[in-house]
Specification:
- By secondary structure, the chain is mostly helical.
- The chain has one domain (9-136).
- It has two helices and three strands.
- It has helices spanning 9-59, 72-80; strands spanning 111-113, 125-127, 134-136.
- The chain starts with 8 loop residues before the first helix and ends in a 17-residue tail after the last strand.
Length: 153
């Protein structure tokens, strides 16, 4: 007769319990590093777009890629395609971005031109055509102070 070697129920329960305890210790660290990576990506996107906006302004004699009354499509077109010195389609300058980045906090890549202050969450980004300020437009409030956290980045 053959002898069968197997684990007892008690041994299996002990191993499963140990794995559960280890998972409970690791998951919070994973979640916090994911949140940190998401914030770092947002800050990086803001930095890159702001630098490209300054370059656009230099190339276009002090003009921003959108003026008061223009749309997100106008802004995006001027940032992701080649333009002439006046911002019309051309071949002299750009493109400044491959595409507009997605704001990971609300999943949007659209750019709101002027209007309400940043933090409404209606678009991924807000561009002020008067000051050239480019901000995240999500309404994420991770510190629960009642205001959007990313407006001041």
């Amino acid at each position: 007769m053959k002898t069968v070697h197997a684990f007892t129920l008690a041994e299996v329960l002990i191993v499963v319990s140990i794995l559960g305890i280890m998972a409970a210790l690791v998951v919070p660290h994973y979640n916090s590093s994911t949140a940190e990576a998401q914030l770092a990506a947002l800050q990086s996107n803001l930095h890159v777009v702001r630098k490209q906006l300054e370059l656009y302004k230099i190339h276009h004699n002090g003009l921003w890629p959108a003026a008061v009354g223009e749309t997100s499509a106008d802004f995006t077109r001027r940032m992701v395609t080649k333009t002439d010195g006046g911002g019309a389609p051309g071949t002299k300058f750009g493109p400044y971005q491959e595409r507009m980045p997605v704001n990971k906090y609300n999943g949007r890549a659209t750019v709101r031109i002027g209007g309400a202050a940043a933090g409404t969450g209606t678009d991924g980004w807000r561009f002020d055509p008067l000051s050239g300020e480019f901000q995240a437009d999500d309404n994420y409030d991770g510190n629960n102070d009642g205001g959007p956290d990313h407006v001041g980045l």
